[in-house]
Amino acid sequence: MLGSVPAWGQGRRWRVLFIGNSYTATNDLPAMLARLMAAGGDTLIYDASTPGGFTFQGHTTLPATVDKIRQGGWDRVVLQEQSQRPAFPQAQVEATVFPFARRLDSLVRVHNPQARTYFYITWGRQNGDASNCAFYPPLCTYAGMDSLLRARYEQMADQTGAALAPAGPVWRRIRRLHPTLALYVADGSHPSVAGTYAAACAHYATLLAKDPSNLPTVPGLGAPEAALIRAAAKTVAFDSLAHWRVAQPTGVAYPGALPARAYPNPVQNWLHVPGAGGLYDAAGVMRAQGAAPGLDVGHLPPGLYYWRGRARKPQPIVIVR
Q1: Alpha-carbon distance 118 to 163, whole Å?
Q2: Domain count of the chain?
Q3: In this structure, is the dihedral angle defined by the CA atoms of residues 122, 152, 116 and 235, taken in order, positive or negative?
Q4: Closest Cα to residue 297, out of 317, 274, 276?
C-alpha cells in the first residue's frame, strides 16, 4: 500500500511506515496526513500494515509487517497497538504488550538506524470498554480507559526511547472543550472523519515538529470544526514536544537503564515510591509530596498524574477508584 502526495511548496520528503490496525486504516489516516503535509510544503511517502484488530504481538510474526520494516529507508515508523490491550491490568500489559513493543522497536532500529519510532497513543472508547468492565473496573468509563492507555504508551516510550504521537490526549481535550464535536462513529470506538483529522494533526505536530494551526480542512469536515481540532492539536501536541519525547530535554538521556519506579500502577490509596519527590497532575501542579517508602494518594481524584523523583524522568501514574 505504498503511496505519496507531492508537496505544494518547498519542504522535506519524509518516508513513514504505519503499523497498526483499523484505528489507523479507518478514513486512511496515512493518506490524510500526506494531504496535510503537502499543504505544509512537505512530501509524505508512506506504506502501512494495518490488518483489523491486530496486536503488536501479531505484528512481530506477520510477514507483511516484518518485510516492510526490513525494507529499510524509513524516517519514522509509527506503532499502534490494539485499542484495548494497553489499558488492561499492569501485569497483563507487561506480559502481552511491552515485550512486543520493544521487539518491534528493536526491529526498526536494526533495519532503519536513521529512523525514529513513534508510538501512536489512541483514545478511550466513548463510554468505556463495556466488554471488559466487569473484568477490570477502571475500564468502565472513558476517562479511566483513556488515562490507562496514555500511561501505558508513555511507559512504552520510557522503555524504548521512542517518541509519541498523542492522538488520544488531543481527543480528550476536544471532548472536554467541545463535547458536541463527534469524534466517534456509531460504534463508539472507531474514528469519524473528525477523529481521524485530530489524529492526523497530532501526528503532523510530532512527526514533523511543526505547528498544525494553519493546515487546511479535509473533505467531510467543516472549516469551523477543523479549526477547533487544530487548536487542540497545537496546545496538546505541538506546544509540548519535549513531553512527547520529540524534543529531548537537556540532561535527560533515553533509552537507558530504567530507574526504580513507583508502584502499584494503577493505584488506589497508597503509592510506593523509590525516593523523595512529588506527584503532579496533568497540568503540572504538585498534588502530593513524599519519600520512600511511599505516600497516601487516597484523597486525590482519579485520573492521570506524574511521579517526579530526583534526577528521574517523570513516571505516569493512574489513580483509580
Answers
A1: 5
A2: 2
A3: positive
A4: 317
The cell for 22 is 483499523
Asked if the structure places residue 246 within a domain, the reply is no
d(CA 111, CA 72): 5
With H, G, I as helix, E, B as strand and everything else as coil, classify residue 73: coil
Expressed as residue numbers, the domain containing 285 is 270-319
Q: 3-state DSSP call for residue 129? A: coil
Q: Which three cell numbers mark 96?
A: 502481552
- Per-residue confidence band for 3, with pLDDT thresholds at 50, 70 and 90: low
Does residue 7 register a pLDDT over 70? no
pTM: 0.81
Q: Which residues contact 55 (CB under 8 A, 6 or more apart)?
A: 21, 81, 82, 85, 96, 97, 100
Gyration radius of the chain over CA positions: 19
| 162 to 132, 155, 159, 245: CA distances (angstroms) | 29, 10, 8, 7
3-state class (DSSP) for residue 160: helix
Q: Within this chain, do residues 153 and 222 fall inside the same structural domain, yes or no?
A: yes
**Of 8, 44, 43, 39, which Cα lies nearest the Cα of 214?**
39
Query: What are 216-246's pLDDT values in tens digits?
Result: 999 999 999 999 999 999 999 999 998 899 9
Residue reference for cell 485499542: 83
The Cα 35–Cα 217 span in angstroms is 10
Question: Which residue would you say has higher pLDDT here, 292 or 135?
Answer: 135
Same domain, 151 and 191: yes
Average pLDDT over residues 94-109: 96
* Residues 230 and 295 placed together within one structural domain of the fold: no
> E strand or H helix at 279, and its extent?
strand 277-281
Q: Contact at 8 Å (CB) between 122 and 84? A: no
Per-residue pLDDT at 29: 98
